[in-house]
Design goal:
about 25% strand; about 35% helix; alpha/beta; about 190 residues; Maf protein; binds inosine 5'-triphosphate; 6-stranded mixed beta sheet
């Protein structure tokens, strides 16, 4: 099985490669621009993105819309995570949370997968907390300020460990369950 990972984000590509390597799925990184609609739902962004790509006759691919939802900021940056990371960055998010008692947050990853003419959309989550300061050099994006266990940040753990517990790792497990169902289904009623 071969899937194109369509994204502009090299951090995502590395995580998908690492996840899929052990699952017998070959991945190819492909950069194809497509319109990302403005929506408050990751699933809607992914659904419309898949539609755009299929209109261009592209098949057997994965797209990923993800984000960090911080409870005391009412889910911000959420679907605006990429823009917020590029503008105010982790330092800006920490400033917004200055003095916040509730530092809980959830990472979400919505995968849209087109495989042999079938569309699968799954969403993985990972709950945790926002640390008081940035820590670590691994990973990308919000990894230095997010901790799944309240002690180490995602940027302080190796990629293999992050994949075991992360929103993206969770989404890949859900996706593989769906793909397996479809592979054993022979089309007969
Ligand atoms: P593509 O749309 O091209 O895939 P992108 O970086 O713009 O790349 P998103 O629109 O899904 O991707 O933006 C989500 C942002 O959330 C991303 O840019 C990161 O800053 C952040 N993010 C997502 N997953 C993350 C993770 O596992 N660790 C840290 N930050 C993450």
């Amino acid at each position: 099985m071969k899937l194109s990972i369509i994204t502009s984000n090299p951090g995502k590509v590395e995580e998908y490669r690492h996840c899929f390597d052990g699952l017998g799925v070959e991945t190819v990184h492909t950069k194809i621009p497509y319109d990302e609609v403005q929506s408050s739902e990751l699933e809607e962004v992914v659904g419309k993105g898949m539609y755009e790509l299929k209109k261009k006759s592209i098949s057997n691919f994965i797209i990923d819309d993800s984000g960090l939802f911080i409870n005391c900021l009412e889910g911000f940056p959420g679907v605006w995570s990429a823009y917020v990371q590029k503008t105010i960055g982790n330092g800006g998010v920490l400033k917004l949370m200055d003095g916040a008692a509730d530092r809980s947050a959830v990472f979400k990853c919505c995968i849209g997968c087109n495989i042999d003419g079938n569309d699968i959309i799954v969403t993985g989550t990972c709950g945790g907390t926002i640390l008081e300061e940035s820590r670590g050099t691994e990973g990308f994006g919000y990894d230095p300020i997010f901790s799944h266990n309240g002690t180490e940040s995602f940027a302080e753990i190796p990629i293999g460990e992050k994949n075991k517990i992360s929103h993206r790792g969770h989404a890949v497990s859900l996706l593989m369950e769906e793909i397996k169902k479809y592979l054993i289904y022979d089309g007969k009623p």
